[in-house]
């Protein structure tokens, strides 16, 4: 009974093919960067209308730079894909009356929130591992070897970044009527805070995890405090989402 909601989320994800299209979308995003960077001179030569005999010489990026580029795609567009897949969490169930029905069964709000959050956290983690594996494969095949330890640290920080943003989204999705508004607030807040914190050089806050994931490929980073503050923020978001979960829509 305690895992029924968690299992139901997986069944629902299988029915609407979320278990397929989310990982595939992230893998395509990750693969696109190494392939584009490798074939960029040929693409420019084919569509550049250059004079006869002209040669385009573009310095080949290092493997770390290629992986950094792939990580940037995942941090931005990949995060949007994951949040879009979760956008109707709570809002659609309020409209259908599912949340009210679960409340009538005396199921704790904490169990509802954590089960749904756990589903999307696990889905995004697996999708990111597959995507990063795809980026690493094409980088190795098309360019050269890279530092595996730095890559694993970068991947771990990228996953932590997604978990934090998912937690913030779940907080707003639990409090607000519209999942779209929750998504916009999450992404807008992340953009503003990331720029502000980067300018102030507050590397200990969780909104720096995404940037640190890229820097880990090129520099020696110290993400411990960002990870700890991220863990605290995740716990706070889940606590508040459980405590103030809106079970009914205003139109009900």
Q: Would you kindly provide a written description of the structure presented here, covering whatever features stand out?
A:
By secondary structure, the protein is mainly alpha-helical. The protein has one domain. It contains 10 helices and no strands. α6 packs antiparallel against α7. It is globular, with a radius of gyration of 21 Å. The protein starts with a helix and ends in a 9-residue tail after the last helix. The mean pLDDT is 90.
Q: How is the secondary structure organized here?
A:
Layout lengths: L3 H12 L2 H30 L15 H23 L5 H6 L1 H7 L4 H34 L5 H28 L3 H22 L8 H7 L8 H20 L9
Helix pairs in contact: 1-6, 2-3, 2-6, 3-6, 3-7, 3-9, 6-7, 6-10, 7-8, 7-9, 7-10
Organism: Exiguobacterium alkaliphilum
Keywords: Membrane, Transmembrane, Transmembrane helix
Protein name: ABC-2 type transport system permease protein
Outline of the structure:
By secondary structure, the chain is mostly helical. It is built from 10 helices and no strands. It has helices at 4-15, 18-47, 63-85, 91-96, 98-104, 109-142, 148-175, 179-200, 209-215, 224-243.
What is the strand tally? 0
Helix and strand succession? HHHHHHHHHH
Low-confidence segments, given as residue ranges, are none
Number of alpha- plus pi-helical segments: 10
Q: Look at the structure and give the mean pLDDT.
A: 90
Residue share in β-strands: under 5%
What structural class should be given to the helix and strand makeup?
mainly alpha
Count of individual domains: 1
From the spread of the alpha carbons, the general shape counts as globular
Distance between the termini: 27 Å
């Amino acid at each position: 009974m305690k895992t029924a909601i968690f299992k139901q989320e997986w069944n629902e994800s299988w029915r609407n093919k979320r278990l397929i299209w989310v990982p595939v979308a992230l893998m395509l995003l990750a693969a696109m960067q190494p392939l584009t960077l490798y074939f960029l001179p040929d693409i420019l030569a084919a569509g550049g209308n250059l004079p006869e005999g002209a040669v385009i010489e573009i310095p080949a990026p290092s493997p770390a730079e290629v992986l950094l580029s792939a990580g940037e795609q995942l941090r931005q567009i990949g995060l949007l894909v994951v949040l879009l897949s979760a956008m109707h969490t709570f809002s659609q169930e309020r409209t259908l009356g599912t949340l009210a029905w679960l409340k009538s069964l005396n199921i704790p709000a904490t169990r509802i929130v954590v089960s749904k959050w756990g589903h999307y956290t696990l889905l995004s983690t697996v999708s990111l591992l597959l995507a990063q594996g795809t980026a690493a494969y094409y980088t190795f095949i098309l360019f050269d070897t890279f530092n595996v330890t730095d890559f694993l640290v970068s991947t771990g920080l990228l996953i932590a970044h997604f978990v934090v943003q998912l937690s913030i989204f779940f907080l707003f999705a639990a409090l607000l009527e519209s999942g779209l508004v929750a998504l916009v607030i999450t992404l807008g807040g992340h953009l503003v805070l990331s720029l502000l914190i980067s300018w102030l050089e507050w590397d200990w806050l969780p909104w720096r995890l995404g940037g640190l994931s890229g820097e880990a490929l090129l520099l020696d980073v110290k993400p411990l405090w960002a990870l700890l503050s991220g863990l605290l923020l995740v716990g706070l978001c889940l606590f508040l989402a459980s405590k103030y979960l809106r079970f009914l829509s205003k139109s009900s």
